[in-house]
Design goal:
Chain A: InterPro entries: ETF-QO/FixC_UQ-bd, FAD/NAD-bd_sf, FixC-like, FixC-like_C. Chain A: Its cofactor is FAD. The complex is a heterodimer of chains A (434) and B (103). Chain A is α/β, with parallel strands linked by helices and 434 residues long. In chain A, the strands form 2 sheets. In chain A, strands 3, 4, 5, 6, 11, 12, 13, 14 and 15 form a 9-stranded mixed beta sheet that branches. In chain A, strand 16 and strand 17 form a beta hairpin. Chain B has 103 residues and is of the alpha+beta class. The longest helix of chain B is centred in the middle third of the chain and has 9 residues. The relative contact order of chain B is 0.25. Classes of the chains: A alpha/beta (434), B alpha+beta (103). The interface between A and B is large, with 62 and 46 residues. The structure holds flavin-adenine dinucleotide and iron/sulfur cluster (SF4).
């Protein structure tokens, strides 16, 4: 394949791999990046919300030419039952700022743009190349990779694995254990196209303003999961995801669930007359802090989804991917400058630096959430129903007096779940949140 | 109340969804294979509904078969069967498989 030796090989051209490759190439390191897709992004799926802060730290002027869809001025959080939603909406003119904080993007287009920046910084990218295994020397230090190309080996001082959630290279090389069906979600998503003006009038938007909806409730048929609907310039991204082991037990199909969500009376009008142009599926690592694997060793580092860096509660992943990729890249540059070996002991610096960032701090803060949600599925079925029923009782004017209405609402909650159950849930949730 | 099985059986046609996607099929080189079996395990059977591309189905002898052409390369079937080893799963050769235009 390529005879020369590299300072670093990066596996994958998603946000984590791109961030790592960009950081190292910009500092003059010789970087080879390998991507199995025909072009970067051709295998990748995201909602997708881009968090500006993580990208700004890499490419401060990204707004000049990155393919951004809409900046988000309104967030809607919906708790849904079969006929209704109870929503919390936050919209602010403050989000119409010079350097907006969050944007919707289309991943395949965004990844292509990011990859161009990586190549402009000097990295060599080989697409249509699947990495099959890590190569090691007699002492076990990783010294390169074998790919599915003819004579497809390449050597480097360090291999950075940004191979995503279904990361076969690291798994099969024994760097980390197999993903567990109860700590990874399967999400399906569609792209629905509509004229720009239609989207803007349906969502009360102008210019490039955008709205995002995050939803939970009976839409996941009792499984742990959430759904989303995001506005792009001329399309709407709509998707739903649940924990894989829940799917296996429940018997629902992912596409059936997506259809039901799209046909919900609160969602259907938003998508009316749209043309669907793509259907995608992807896993999301949701095990959180407790499922983070070994992150480094002799001659290797793991970044992004491959390292389980996703904050499922806040639906953040790409920013953690970019941040871990950047810090891995910076660590390698730093060690190279000091002419230090890329050994396990020295690469521990990567973890030390990560511990100081929001990535580790947030995941640690939420470490109990995955287990809480796993063991308290009524959060997704029973509570949304109770909340919707309470809202209806409260808003319907029917001659019943308000005190009786209050009592009825309280009674419905107690009937649905014992008082100690209710208090227990609140307590457990508060503790998981802490 | 919406019940899970009802939703699953709501008649959503996954074939129509896949029809919109672009693929480069590596003809004659399926990247997923099922271990030959007489009677499928519960886990293997679950793939007939968990696979988001509907790649798994039962043949008239009750065994689970795969037609991986519409595979979205999510990896769900791989992790679900990781412990039992009933499936051999590889990524398609570089460049082949699904090609997302939007993702
Ligand atoms: C439906 C959905 C919605 C999401 N929404 C959001 C959101 O709104 N905001 C957000 O921040 N995050 C979101 N996420 C999470 C986010 O997409 C991920 O956290 C992020 O993409 C991880 O980046 P990564 O670079 O680690 O992995 P990936 O983006 O998966 O990239 C891995 C790359 O490696 C390549 N690769 C894998 N194996 C090999 C190999 N053996 N050889 C060569 N190349 C290989 C792949 O083709 C791919 O290009 C969402 C995820 C999903 C599935
Ligand atoms: S990888 Fe995903 S889409 Fe492909 S066969 Fe397995 S479950 Fe289906």
């Amino acid at each position: 394949m390529i005879e020369e030796r590299f300072d670093a090989i990066v596996v994958g051209a998603g946000p984590s791999g791109n961030a790592a490759a960009y950081t190292m190439a910009k500092e003059g390191l010789k970087v080879l990046q390998l991507e199995r897709g025909e072009y970067p992004g051709s295998k990748n799926v995201q909602g997708a919300i881009l968090y500006a802060n993580a990208l700004e730290k890499l490419i401060p002027d990204f707004r000049e030419d990155a393919p951004l869809e809409r900046h988000i001025i309104e967030q809607r959080i919906w708790t849904m039952d079969d006929k209704s939603y109870v929503g919390m909406h936050y919209r602010s003119e403050d989000f119409n700022e010079e350097r907006p904080n969050r944007y919707t993007i289309i991943r395949a287009q965004f990844d292509k743009w990011f990859s161009r920046k990586v190549r402009e910084a000097g990295a060599t990218l080989l697409c249509e190349t699947t990495v099959k295994e890590l190569l090691r020397d007699a002492k076990g230090k990783v010294i390169g990779v074998r790919t599915d190309r003819d004579n497809g080996v390449a050597f480097a001082d360090v291999v950075i694995l940004g191979e995503g959630v279904n990361g076969l290279v690291g798994q099969r090389s024994g760097l980390r254990s197999e993903l567990k069906p109860d700590s990874v979600a399967l999400a399906v998503k569609e792209m629905h196209f509509l004229p720009r003006e239609v989207i803007e009038s349906r969502f009360n938007l102008k210019d490039n303003e955008g709205v995002v909806i995050e939803a939970m409730g009976t839409i996941t048929a009792g499984m742990t999961g959430t759904a989303f609907l995001y506005t792009n310039q001329e399309s709407i991204s709509v998707g739903i995801g649940c924990i894989v082991s829940d799917f296996a037990e429940n018997g629902a199909t992912p596409y059936g669930l997506l259809e039901a969500f799209k046909n919900h009376p609160s969602i259907k009008p938003l998508l009316a007359n749209s043309e669907c142009k793509e259907y995608a599926a992807h896993l999301i690592p949701e095990g959180g802090y407790n499922s983070i694997p070994e992150l480094y060793g002799d001659g290797w580092i793991v970044v992004g989804d491959a390292g389980q860096f996703v904050n499922a509660v806040h639906r953040e992943g790409s920013n953690l991917a970019m941040t871990t990729g950047r810090i891995a890249g910076e660590t390698v540059v730093w060690l190279k400058r000091r002419r230090e070996e890329l050994s396990k002991a020295n690469l521990a610096e990567y973890k030390r630096r990560l511990d100081e960032t929001f990535v580790m701090k947030d995941l640690k803060k939420y470490r109990r959430i995955p287990a809480f949600l796993h063991n308290n599925k009524h959060v997704f079925g029973l509570y949304p129903k109770l909340v919707a029923a309470a809202a209806q009782t409260w808003f319907r004017v029917d001659g019943a007096d308000k005190l009786s209405k209050e009592k009825e609402i309280l009674k419905s909650f107690r009937k649905g779940r014992t008082l100690s159950g209710l208090i227990g849930d609140a307590f457990k949730l508060a503790r998981s949140w802490r | 109340m919406t019940n899970a099985v009802e939703i699953g059986a709501s008649g959503a046609k996954v074939e129509e969804k896949l029809f919109q996607n672009r693929y480069l099929v590596d003809a004659g080189r399926p990247h997923i294979q099922i271990r030959p079996h007489e009677i499928p395990s519960k886990i293997l059977l679950s793939l007939t509904y968990t696979c988001p591309a509907g790649c798994y189905s039962r043949n008239d002898r009750g065994q689970v078969e795969i037609a991986a052409d519409g595979c979205l390369e999510c990896g769900t079937c791989r992790i679900v069967t990781a412990e039992t080893g009933e499936i051999q799963w590889e990524y398609p050769r570089g460049g082949y498989g699904v090609l997302y235009k939007f993702g």
